[in-house]
Amino acid sequence: MTMTVLVAVMTSCSNVLENKIDTATIENDIKEIKTNKPNLDSTKTEILDNLLALSKGRDTYIDEKINSKESTKSLEKYIVEESKFKEVTDNLFNYFKANEITYKKLLSEIDSLNSLDDKYDNKLKTVYAEIDKICTEKQKEMDEKDAKAEKIKEQLNKMVDLEILSITETERDYRDVIQVKIKMTNKTDKRIEAIGFNMVLTDKLGNEIATLKCKSNDGFTNSDIGYWLYGRYDQRETFKALRNVNVSHISDKKEITKINHAGELISAYDDDLESLLSINYDYETPDKLNGYCPYLEDEHKLMKKIENVRDEKNQEFKNKFPILHKYQKMQKKLLDFSNILG
Questions:
Q1: CATH number corresponding to 158-262
Q2: For labeling, which of 12, 14, 76, 327 is most exposed (least CB within 10 Å)?
Q3: How large is the average pLDDT for residues 319-323?
Q4: 106 SS3 class
């Protein structure tokens, strides 16, 4: 490239960056910026593309988001209706016009944003490390607990055989129910006083049909037949899954979690409540620590510290990055979840 051409390109790019952001010229301006600066980072490209799409109206905005693979067709359900969309976007572009916001000012704020992120990441570096240490230790504890539980379940599974005899749609006490009939056979020389177990049912392709969670306090020495009912309304998902299921067409995997064996309670978990609440999240230390830990409550002092620092960051963002702050507020106003939540 000759010096004359290079100077022309640089001048052209510099000129367009000084242009005020205006819906009348935005398409040509952004096209020229992207042509003259092909190595724009992803954040700048995304914001410029969003502004262009917003300037064209709700339908175009949604279509271009879907076509760019940034969203799916369900996006339309979450975007405010047409008149509200126009009100919000007009407000943004009027702000640009009233404050004479140029592309150069906008891109300059984006450039400075990384330093803000770095500043507050450094403030939280030791906090992130503390949280990761806590979470790693908790994960180790959960893995050990799960390993212990699996060994106990192996022991329990050898003590009682479970066999599904039938799955029948019927009526009980004026309720439509699916009745599952299960035979329980004691393989030990002591009486089974009570039992708790799960049975995972799968079809011939290995797809899960349903998981039955069963308990029985009816003791048995040799064998017993139990009946478990799943109502159309109170257990609708299981009821629906079991309708028209033929026992000969399914496989099942038993998981006995607790047995009262002649008065001795053998359980894979400390208690039922813990088995429900103690979930193994399989936490792994991320490449870049970010304060995430599924085992810590929001009220934990370290999580509160992160919240306070992020509030401080948000305030600085609001004060020092007025253009991006306005843009961010606009994006939130475009979302409407009332149809989904209602």
A1: 2.60.40
A2: 14
A3: 96
A4: helix
> In 3D, which of 112, 129, 100, 131 has the Cα closest to residue 18?
100
Query: 54 near 85, Cβ under 8 Å?
Result: no
**What is the C-alpha separation between 72 and 223, in angstroms, rounded?**
54
Question: pLDDT-derived band of residue 271, with 50, 70 and 90 as boundaries?
Answer: low
Domain with CATH 2.60.40 in the chain: 158-262
Q: What is the pLDDT of residue 67?
A: 81
CA 174-180-181 angle, 5° bins? 115
Angstrom distance (rounded) from CA 292 to CA 69: 27
Contacting residues for 75 by C-beta, under 8 A, at least 6 apart: 62, 65, 66
Write down the pTM of the prediction. Answer: 0.67
For residue 192, CA distances in Å to 92, 225, 253, 271 come to: 71, 13, 21, 19
Q: Which amino acid is it at 256?
A: I
Strands (E), the chain: 160-172, 175-186, 192-202, 208-216, 223-231, 251-261, 264-267
Beta carbons within 8 Å of 240's beta carbon, 6+ residues apart: none
pLDDT of residue 66: 84
* Contact between residue 165 and residue 247 where contact means Cβ atoms under 8 Å apart: yes
> H-helix or E-strand containing 33?
helix 26-36
The reported pLDDT for the residue numbered 10 is 46
Q: Sign of torsion, CA 184 186 191 192? A: negative
